[in-house]
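Batch 3, record 17
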Amino acid sequence: MSGSAEEVRKHIATYKKIAGALAVGTIVTVLASYLDVSVAIGITIALIIATTKASLVANYFMHLGEERSQWLMVSLGLTAVFWLFLMLVPLWTFSDHIGVVKTLPNANAHEMAEGEEH
Amino acid sequence: MEIPYTVAERPDTGLNNVKLGIWLFLASEVMLFGGLFSTYVLLRVGAVEWPLGAEFLNIPIGTVNTVILIASSVTMVMAYASLKLGDFAKYKTYMLATVLLPVLFLCIKGYEYYEKVSHDHLPSHSTFLAIYWTMTALHGLHIIGGIVVNGYFWGPGSKMWHVKREMFENRVEAAGLYWHFVDLVWIFLFPVLYLL
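Prediction for the assembled complex:
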């Protein structure tokens, strides 16, 4: 944050609005968790709200929206790419059977089969 | 000999060293917590069954903690803005709030941990609790670190304001960036662990 006292006061007014938005976002997150939706949709809604709140913090509180340094943008851009890769790797591992119901093996199957024979 | 570019911007990066350094550190923290979030995804996708957060965790308490941490992020940025306006007294007030609010957060978290332990909901109990304890404990350690740093800048460190004003502002800005990041992590941690 640079500039005159006037600019700083404008920033302060913005901070108060963002604080309000974050409070509303928190309430919406909690209320959304009570919606009767599938797990996948629930996760999607929660992450959209969380990402929106995180963007507000990053953009306004961390002043990322005002930064113009190419070094910074490239470093953070690379970080974002690597982070996305980190998130996707476990999903790719399971991508061939996401959503397939897993059944536990019956530990007593052998005894039950013997019982049926008798 | 003075360390260069603690105040002046480097011509090649366009930033002072303090700001570039803290952002690079935060990039490494993204990978640290990202690894744990990735672990959570792997464990959950691979699990036969996974409990709802509400089965083990108290959502109202988690919500209160979220509000407390967001409030501390607001007071942190207001502390920095007060420095830019030259109002040292207001800076001290806001910075004190930034130190005390996370102390309250940790007290509430400590109560949550106590409840878990007394009900034998330890990391060894289930995969969900293992990842819950790991992620919230690591986040808690980051909060303690932030309290120490912000406490220093409220207390003995604030003497620099009277001697090297701009350098002190930059240090508080860097501490603020770290603190907002800690808040960011909780913004994702709360819904992922408590609500899903």
